[in-house]
Every structure is written in C-alpha cells, then in structure tokens.
Design goal:
With 178 residues, this protein is an alpha/beta fold. It contains three helices and 17 strands. Helix 1 (24-39) runs antiparallel to helix 2.
Amino acid sequence: MRNVERYPVEGPNALWQVYRTVSPWKAVRNFIAIQFARYCPILPVKNWIYRHVLGMKVGRYASFALMVMVDVFFPERIRIGDNCIIGYNTTILTHEYLIREYRLGDVRIGDHVMIGANTTILPGVTIGDHAIVSAGSLVHKDVPAYAFVGGNPMQVIGENETALAERAEEQRVGRADD
C-alpha cells in the first residue's frame, strides 16, 4: 500500500485549489528548472539542478535520462539512491489532486535501482535496493529489494538474479576472509 497523507477539500476539485497548498512562484521556478533538466544531456548538471534548485535528495552516480518528469509541486519529497538509472520519459509524482481531496507522499528509490523508460511512479511508493522496474510500468505500490517488477498495474515478475548472485558472492568472499 502507498504511504500518502490525505487532505480533504470543499468546493471545486482540489486542482482548482492548488495554490492554497503550494506557492505559484515555487511552481513556476520548479517548472522552469525541470524543463531545463529534462533536455540537459549533462548528468552532473541535471543532478545539481535536482539537488540545489529543487531540493531533491539524489545519490552519487544517479542517472536521469532525457525527458524525465519529476513532481513540479513537491520535488523535495523525492529521494533517489546511489548508482540508479531513471529511464527516458519516466514520471515521478509526489502529489495527486483529486475531486474531493489531494494526497501527498514521499517517493524513495533505493540504491542500484533500474527504472525502465516510460514508467510512472505514484506518490508514497518505496522502491527497494537493487530492484528493476520494466519499461512502461505503473508503480502503484512498494517494490521489494532485489525484485523485478513490471506492468500496468505493476506486479512482481521475478528477482534481480544478477544482483542476488553478486550479493551471494560478496558474502562468500567475506566469509573466506574471516
């Protein structure tokens, strides 16, 4: 299940009331920064924008492909681990504005995670270390570490056997050193 905070609204739908929850100036600044980062081919520059302009937590060697769309209103609620790849045209959301409520939730992506192109990650989701998300997936619930998931809606397909084998080898070598 996703971990989201729910905020009921009265009157018109929640999206019509968006600027009661976020400053319009923040939204414009974030939109401009995100659009620049989406087209920027230089990974260190992208990561600098995500960290220093948008307030995201981005690990070392995280790679965002072209056209990745991070949440425009609450990007600071996104945490990406070390050595991750976020595929082309992926969308990472930390908000949902619905008819009678809006929802906010942190998105946490662990270390060594691979997310395929055209994936959508919904608010309140955690993706565990070494997980693989196949292209075109809708991540609507948590993904366990070392899992291989995909589809719409997403389901567990198997395990990241390469990462599991590497972990087993590291443990074997570690025991031999003792």
